[in-house]
């Protein structure tokens, strides 16, 4: 026998017989015979899409007077020792099976149902609504199973991400990534057989919850593998899925969907605990922690790196962008791409030619425009500039608020003689700053109390490590 919060499965010979429990959780209601019939019928129909040789039939149960009293899903019994969760827990190599499953899932998604009703379930408002519904279902357990601070941080981080990523989510809808998927891809329900994996037990009780971004569908299994202690396998599986589907996936979106799936299972674990399964409380806490970890990891960030010429800010900014997996935008590069830049003298001095006030303002404006679009698409951004003007810094803060991004401001600093020596040693650098420019800028550099200072006088590795620690602390 096996049991979940919604069903009981009996194993007899080479068959498995599944009966729905007469339960009402609000988000599903199986209390009537007719509702269980519909659910069982849909289970057979929908699961035959991925496992047609497993879901065999639907059988009616009659009472002593010949009246229908229940319905049973009849399935081919799967070998328990080939269950993906069991294999992972035993430490067996399942990479080949997961690659096959990723390929099978991509193929399934490529022909899955699409259309206006499916697409509408993938819009930002629908994803927000699914989060809110899960928060509503989990809130009664706040205080008894997990703490209020954890719950509230999950709420604001999840909704902040959705509200700031309308362009990304809407674009994925338009590109056809939202499909009638599996909806509940857990390692317990995947069997690794010699002729290929079988994924069972898709979500059948609410079509709208099954209408998801294909990446969201795959993220469920990535989350479950992490829950089993195989986080790297989960990341690999998601990577294979993204590569095979040809989908460009921002890291933040993958983290967001893993967090969503972890919280869905957290809510289910809370319900299991309410049904009397004591160990489910620890599971719920673990899943809530996973959700929060991924929401923090997927936080879209705006890192402002500034300072005088020669202090090493571009070295720090580039290294941070690499470590974050973010995009680096540098004013020194952007100003050369501006209209009429070729007609202006880059060596005219501070505040003149290519560096006159209007040109500088337009350069920052172009950088902000590019940054806005990148953040809307879920990318974290590092902005490398002098940031000598307080108005430009305030514009960056406003941009972070608008894009629901976390901003960190860093001011790189090194002694004058170190900076001057670096400027003198530059060869073929995109920056035109000279020692004279640095001296003049230093006299006009507005106070920057909001920034955290990074000592860049020594080795680059040391400065980058210090800056990285600051970012890690600001989560």
TrEMBL record:
<dbReference type="InterPro" id="IPR052732">
    <property type="entry name" value="Cell-binding_unc_protein"/>
</dbReference>
<dbReference type="InterPro" id="IPR027417">
    <property type="entry name" value="P-loop_NTPase"/>
</dbReference>
<dbReference type="GO" id="GO:0016301">
    <property type="term" value="F:kinase activity"/>
</dbReference>
<keyword id="KW-0808">Transferase</keyword>
<protein>
    <submittedName>
        <fullName>Gluconate kinase</fullName>
    </submittedName>
</protein>
<keyword id="KW-0418">Kinase</keyword>
<dbReference type="Pfam" id="PF13671">
    <property type="entry name" value="AAA_33"/>
</dbReference>
<dbReference type="InterPro" id="IPR011009">
    <property type="entry name" value="Kinase-like_dom_sf"/>
</dbReference>
């Amino acid at each position: 026998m096996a049991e979940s919060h919604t069903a009981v499965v009996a194993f007899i010979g080479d068959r498995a017989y599944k009966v729905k429990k007469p339960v009402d959780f609000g988000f599903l209601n199986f209390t009537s015979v007719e509702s269980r019939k519909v659910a069982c019928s849909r289970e057979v129909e929908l699961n035959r899409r991925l496992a047609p040789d497993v879901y065999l039939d639907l059988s009616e149960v009659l009472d002593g007077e010949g009246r229908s009293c229940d319905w049973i899903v009849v399935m081919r019994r799967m070998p328990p020792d080939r269950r993906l969760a069991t294999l992972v827990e035993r430490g067996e190599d399942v990479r080949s099976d997961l690659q096959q499953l990723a390929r099978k899932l991509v193929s399934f998604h490529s022909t899955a149902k699409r259309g206006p009703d499916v697409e509408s379930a993938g819009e930002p408002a629908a994803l927000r609504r699914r989060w809110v519904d899960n928060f509503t279902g989990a809130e009664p357990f706040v205080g008894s199973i997990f703490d209020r601070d954890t719950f509230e941080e999950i709420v604001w981080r999840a909704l902040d991400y959705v509200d700031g990523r309308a362009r990304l989510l809407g674009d994925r809808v338009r590109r056809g990534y939202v499909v009638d998927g599996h909806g509940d891809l857990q390692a317990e329900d995947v069997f690794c057989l010699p002729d290929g994996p079988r994924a069972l037990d898709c979500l059948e009780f609410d079509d709208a919850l099954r209408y998801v971004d294909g990446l969201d569908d795959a993220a469920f299994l990535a989350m479950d593998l992490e829950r089993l202690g195989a986080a790297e396998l989960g990341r690999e599986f998601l990577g294979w899925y993204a590569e095979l589907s040809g989908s460009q996936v921002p890291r933040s979106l993958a983290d967001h969907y893993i967090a969503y799936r972890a919280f869905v299972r957290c809510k289910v674990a809370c319900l299991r605990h309410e049904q009397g399964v004591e160990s489910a409380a620890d599971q719920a806490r673990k899943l809530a922690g996973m959700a929060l970890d991924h929401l923090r990891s997927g936080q879209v960030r705006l890192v402002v790196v500034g300072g005088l010429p020669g202090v090493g800010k571009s070295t720090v900014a580039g290294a941070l962008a690499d470590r974050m997996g973010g995009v680096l935008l540098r004013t020194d590069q952007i100003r050369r791409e501006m209209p009429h830049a070729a007609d202006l003298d880059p060596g005219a001095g501070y505040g003149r030619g290519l560096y006159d006030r209007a040109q500088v303002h337009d350069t920052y404006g172009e950088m902000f425009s590019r940054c806005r679009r990148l953040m809307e698409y879920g990318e974290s951004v590092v902005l490398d500039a002098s940031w000598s003007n307080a108005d430009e810094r305030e514009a960056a803060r406003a941009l972070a608020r608008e894009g629901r991004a976390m901003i960190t401001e860093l001011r790189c600093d090194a002694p004058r003689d170190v900076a001057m020596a670096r400027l003198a040693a530059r060869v073929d650098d995109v920056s035109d700053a000279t020692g004279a420019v640095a001296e003049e800028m230093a006299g006009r550099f507005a106070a920057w109390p909001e920034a955290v200072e990074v000592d860049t006088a020594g080795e680059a590795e040391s400065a980058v490590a210090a800056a990285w620690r600051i970012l890690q602390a600001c989560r």
